[in-house]
């Protein structure tokens, strides 16, 4: 069993989640890949852990961070999703996963993570769950072009937090994507389960990873996002939502 890292914080406000915070591979698992691949985005959301920790400190918000690589088990996927234990990622084969025991991986990694998050939600009663992710400027494989967004806000059917966040980010002059570079209607398992299913407003924040790859970038984005998240949380708590 591998447990997530939990940062304590003030209840009834913001809860931060970082599904892809780590590139660790637990003992006894051989992915069959070159060690250099663990430094790539396929293994970890580059900069996401540092940004989550910085935001948690600034906001005094509780946070939950994964402690294993998504190449072992992608915690932001349903247990029946083909990408839960990826056989390849962005053109790189993960041969060690071909014989992986799905039941074992779910029991050891996926279930403890989501059980811990469910318990933390009960304990802290957040009004906003914010998942912190990062994305690559462009994919290594395929014909996809450069991704121009500095930040993307992902949401599924509950748009409360996203509709508050998007104009605040645009007002900062940021190149902001709404369900870009991919859609929260497709890739949103953690927030679907722990946010929408509980009636808690949520959003996934995707930062282009070259912008948070060093401490200066993390400080800059903490200064941008902390007051925006605080404003969203306060407005959700007071019922001050945008009109449709």
UniProtKB/TrEMBL annotation:
Q: Which Gene3D superfamilies does this one have?
A: Zn-dependent exopeptidases (3.40.630.40)
Q: Name one GO molecular function term.
A: hydrolase activity
UniProt keyword annotation of Cell division present: no
Please verify whether the record's keywords include Hydrolase: yes
Q: Which terms are listed as keywords in the entry?
A: Hydrolase
Q: Which Pfam families match?
A: FGase
Protein known as: N-formylglutamate amidohydrolase
Natural source organism: Sphingomonas glacialis
